[in-house]
Every structure is written in structure tokens, then in C-alpha cells.
Amino acid sequence: MSPDIEAKITFLVSDGKGNGRHKPARSGYRPAHLVRDDYLTTGTHQYYGDVIAQPGETVLGTIAFITPEVYPRTLWIGKIIRIQEGSRIVGHAEVTQIFNEILKKSD
């Protein structure tokens, strides 16, 4: 699966109230992403250098979304996408590059 975007991915440390992560994430991690205010979609992460992303860290990597044709023109450089596991917020991704043209928001 080809990546749709490159992003700076930040994982939150568990806050004891259900948000954040206790465990590190590795390439292949598949959380949900809030790409629009009304649309969550799954995406597969690949971290450059195959690093292990610890809670509280920011890593650079790519995300390949499922069915991007369902939410065209929703992303731009600098957009922050919330990362979730179910309803639990575990981090965010700041878009740094868009590889899939269908996702680029029109000016």
C-alpha cells in the first residue's frame, strides 16, 4: 500500500483518564485518524528509520489511509489530524507532505 501523506506524528503520554498511550508504537501500527470533523478512517503508519515511537515522542513517517477517495480534498500541509484508538485520543499527526493528489485541498 502506497503512503498517502508524510507527517510529524506525536504520541501523547497516558493521562490516567483514558487518553494517550502506555506502550510504544511500531511501523505497521493502524489507528483511526480524524481526517474531517465528521469522518474517522484507519491508516497504517510507517516510521522512518523503523524507529519505535515512545509515548511523549514525535517521529517522522508516512500514513497510508484506507479509501481516501471517500474524503477527497480534505488535507493540506500543516493540518493536524487527531489519532485515536476507538474514542481514546492517543496523539496527532501534522501533515508535512501529501503524496496522494486526491487528498489535497483546493486553494
Automatic annotation (TrEMBL):
SUPFAM superfamilies: EF-Tu/eEF-1alpha/eIF2-gamma C-terminal domain. InterPro entries: Transl_elong_EF1A/Init_IF2_C (IPR009001). Keywords: GTP-binding, Nucleotide-binding. This is Elongation factor Tu. It comes from Paenibacillus lignilyticus.
